[in-house]
Design goal:
The structure holds 2 protein chains of 2 kinds.
Chain A (H helix, E strand, L loop, with lengths): L10 H13 L2 H8 L2 E2 L7 H20 L8 E3 L11 E3 H11 L4 H29 L7 H23 L4 H15 L5 H9 L8 H31 L17 E2 H26 L5 H4 L18 H9 L5 E3 L5 E3 L3 H26 L15 H21 L1 H7 L4 H40 L1 E8 L5 E6 L23 H4 L44
Antiparallel strand pairs in A: 1-4, 2-3, 5-6, 7-8
Chain B lengths: L2 H14 L7 H26 L13 H13 L1 H4 L17 H10 L21 H15 L16 H11 L1 H4 L6 E2 L5 E2 L7 H10 L14 H16 L14 H25 L2
Antiparallel strand pairs in B: 1-2
Helix pairs in contact in B: 3-6, 5-6, 5-9, 7-10, 9-10
The chains are: A mainly alpha, B mainly alpha.
């Protein structure tokens, strides 16, 4: 029998042909794989969140193999000596076992926690990119809303996960959450007792949070993320203005092979950073907090960073209690305003912002080109104001740690937070607005007068002027006639090629000046001829 | 006037200040006799019960305490006053605080204070151990008070796990889960436990320095104190952090800082690099 020769080169084509014969996928796949994505570093920020979500799913599955979501009381007898013989919940005992007795358990737990922090951080940074570049405008308002919801669902995912180890910190957080729910007028008590199955802490909350944390919330997250990415595919990605880029096209790289390969590489980088942080930096050392007991609250009990702004708003809120003398008397505790009303307002404002802005500007057109933050000073300033507001609240959430480590009075920190919350955001608005105007003006100045060369010339009458390199033919005043097109204006000579190209390459130069002829067919490369003196462009 | 009449109106008459039946001179004489009699009685009683003429104001000080008093009169008297009775608005009376308090405050360098402020800070101690002992002896002999048991290792054979439980219930509210300390109101704070020795922790629990409550022996027994010290010294101070660099053990605050300063910064650089490769 003749042995058939195996042709490795033909294998991919043959396999693909066989698949297409059976499933007829060539046409849709071609469309998909040829999809063009514009390339800019800031478009990769959302991917950080996506990839850390993938890491979250993988490490989370590992954790569920060993975690026991039960509040039955057991006596710890694992390998961590300082807790041996202590009665605790099965959930906490299994979290300790995960940390000390399961091989690789601690790094998985720490990677899971770091990935959660990174997921939220990347969402916020990505959201800021989208906001400041105006990528949320029509037709992408829906995707902006989905993105905002992703933050809040991620917030819930983080909080339920934070509660699962059932250590002192978790329980303190749960106690605060139950207090927040109780503060809601009329429905508060019913809400709390239905969630906790009676009085706090009850015996069911860990099991309920577990199923929410591993099934319901991740399911919701996957659904929202799929819709988010689907809409990016459907509505196409926005792009920066530039040569050849219009509101009607997308200039970039095809999905396959380069874009997909780069994304694969970027996933590895994100995974690597999370793994490094999980291995090098200790996060949430649950063994120091001990099992949760209602009378144990440690100093420096803070929530994770994305919840800290609510902790801060609670700390800053004055003790204004409203007593309503109906029947036996109703009370609206001060906790209600900073922890229920404030997030409600924030959700409303953030999701509705695209519509508010469109209404304000009466701008109902499609926008596929991004705007530089400086070109829309009002929006940039509003964004700066929101960021300042959030930062003041977040810092106030950790104000006891700041007060202690920097030797500041805690009372002074609280008052600084209260005053800062009112003063800093308007200040941020003003400063951001002025910065935008200044940057705009500088762009226009370069377009009109040219690039500063650094050459100072003395005129015959003794004056000194700096020689400018115009960007285009100048008119009789020596002014260029270029219009601003919403993209970077070159402001350095090497951007114009006047000083030779900058060395390309990120970590090491990828271009080397040619010294010898590469092949006999090509003439040797001549050094660039000396350029003539750069003039101011003035005509005499 | 009959005696009947006198008896009837006696009280009213005296209240109204009517001239009494006896003459002025006789009344004065009677008062003088009564006064002399009372004075004689009181003086006699005093002579019977009072100590001898050799008695001093204070019991004699032992050698170490006398040395301590000498140190006290140079370094502490400004705020704590003569005989450690305290000076209003400057320093409290030290009568009855015991040598435990002296050992903690002076031995950890908190006293003498650099200035009047919310709370004395730990500093390099001004006095040697010997001088601290002498000062402690002086204060002890002055008014008694709690004392730290002898020896430098106060947590031998103690139960670390029980200590951990007690620490979390009684100490972690202020000193934090990792013993790194925490803020209190108006510039006051619970200090870090890292530099504290066994004796200092014990003394602090006994004497309740500055803003710390007193944990007397009837609240936390000496054995339980030893357990707590064992937990602090063996777990919080000598435990290697199993998860890697502990970020100062400040809780989620520094973790949030780290994810931005390390995670996000590293990944933004990575995205700059990857997007630059086109």
């Amino acid at each position: 029998m003749k042995r058939r020769k195996f042709d490795a080169a033909a294998l991919p084509a043959k396999t693909a042909g066989a698949v297409d014969d059976r499933f007829q996928v060539a046409t849709p796949l071609r469309k998909l794989l040829n999809k063009v994505f514009p390339d800019h570093w800031s478009f990769l920020l959302g991917e950080i969140a996506l990839f850390s979500f993938v890491v979250l799913l993988m490490t989370g599955v590992f954790l569920t193999f060993f975690y026991e979501p039960a509040m039955t009381e057991v006596v710890y007898n694992g390998s961590y000596a300082p807790l041996r013989g202590t009665p605790m919940s099965a959930a906490y005992a299994s979290s300790l076992d995960l940390s000390f007795d399961v091989r690789g358990g601690l790094i998985m737990r720490q990677m899971h926690h770091w990935a959660a922090l990174l997921f939220m951080a990347a969402i916020v940074v990505h959201m800021m990119r989208v906001f400041f570049t105006g990528a949320f405008r029509k037709p992408r308002e829906t995707n902006w809303i989905i993105g905002s919801l992703l933050f809040w669902v991620g917030f819930l995912a983080g909080f339920t996960g934070y509660s699962l180890p059932d250590d002192g910190l978790s329980g303190t957080g749960l106690r605060i959450a139950s207090g927040i729910m109780l503060s809601i007028p009329v429905i508060g008590s019913w809400l709390t007792s239905s969630i906790f199955g009676g009085e706090f802490p009850g015996e069911i909350i860990i099991s309920r949070f577990f199923i929410a944390h591993v099934l319901l919330i991740p399911g919701l997250l996957v659904a929202l993320i799929s819709a988010h990415l689907g809409l990016v595919f459907k509505q196409k990605h926005t792009q920066w203005p530039g040569p050849g880029r219009t509101n009607e096209n997308v200039v970039g790289e095809r999905m396959f092979p380069r874009y997909a390969l780069k994304q694969g590489g970027f996933f590895m980088v994100v995974f690597g950073v999370i793994a490094l942080m999980g291995g090098l930096f200790q996060i949430n050392p649950i063994w120091y907090f001990g099992p949760y007991e209602a009378w144990v609250v440690s100093a420096a009990s803070q929530p994770d960073w994305y919840v800290m702004f609510l902790d801060g708003s609670t700390r800053l809120m004055p003790a204004w209690q409203i007593n309503i003398p109906i029947g036996d008397g109703y009370v609206i505790p001060p906790l209600f305003w900073p922890t229920v009303v404030l997030p409600g307002i924030l959700v409303g404002l953030s999701t509705m912002y695209p519509f508010l802005e469109a209404r304000q500007l009466k701008d109902y057109k499609h926008h596929n080109l991004l705007q530089r933050p400086r070109d829309v000073p009002a929006r940039t300033a509003v964004g700066a104001m929101a960021v300042a507001f959030y930062i003041v609240l977040t810092l106030s959430g950790g104000n006891d740690v700041i007060a202690d480590k920097f030797h500041i009075s805690l009372n002074a920190m609280t008052w600084a937070g209260r005053i800062g919350l009112l003063v800093v955001p308007p200040l941020a608005y003003y400063v951001a607005y002025r910065l935008c105007l200044g940057l705009q003006q500088h762009d226009r100045e370069v377009l009109a007068h040219g690039v500063e060369t650094g050459i100072i010339k003395r005129l015959p009458d003794g004056r000194f002027v700096e020689v400018h390199q115009p960007l285009a033919a100048a008119d009789h005043d020596g002014h260029g006639e270029l219009d601003y097109v919403g993209w970077v204006v070159p402001k350095k000579m090497n951007r114009l090629g006047a000083l030779g190209p900058a060395i390309r390459g990120f970590f090491y130069p990828i271009e080397r000046p040619a010294e010898a002829p590469v092949s006999p067919g090509h003439p040797p490369v001549e050094p660039r001829p000396e350029r003539e003196e750069i003039t101011s462009g003035e005509r005499r | 006037m009959t005696s009947d009449n006198d008896r009837r109106g006696g009280l009213l008459a005296r209240l109204r200040g009517r001239p009494a039946a006896r003459s002025r001179g006789r009344r004065r004489l009677g008062a003088a006799v009564r006064l002399i009699a009372a004075l004689t009685l009181a003086g006699g009683a005093y002579t019977v019960f009072a100590p001898g003429v050799q008695a001093q104001e204070n019991p004699p000080l032992t050698g170490a305490a006398a040395e301590g008093k000498a140190l006290f009169d140079v370094s502490c008297v400004t705020c704590h006053g003569r005989n450690a009775q305290g000076v209003e608005g400057r320093g409290p009376s030290l009568v009855g605080v015991g040598s435990a308090s002296v050992e903690f405050q002076v031995g950890s360098g908190r006293m003498p204070m650099a200035r009047q402020e919310a709370q004395a800070m730990r500093k390099p101690p001004v006095f040697t151990d010997e001088q601290v002992r002498q000062l402690g002896q002086y204060i002890q002999e002055l008014g008694g008070g709690p004392q730290v048991p002898a020896g430098n290792d106060l947590h031998r054979n103690a139960d670390m796990a029980a200590g951990g439980e007690l620490f979390r219930i009684n100490c972690s509210q202020c000193h934090a889960f990792g013993g790194g300390g925490g803020a209190l109101s108006s510039g006051k704070y619970a200090p870090s436990l890292k530099p504290a020795s066994d004796r200092q922790i014990y003394a602090a629990m006994l004497s309740g320095p500055q803003n710390m409550p007193v944990f007397g022996d009837n609240q936390i027994t000496p054995e339980q104190k030893a357990d707590i010290i064992a937990y602090i010294q063996e777990t919080l101070k000598h435990d290697q952090d199993q998860g890697g660099f502990n970020l100062g053990r400040y809780g989620p605050s520094t973790e949030g800082l780290a994810i931005f300063l390390i995670g996000i910064v590293a990944l933004v650089f990575a995205s700059l690099w990857i997007a630059g490769k086109s």
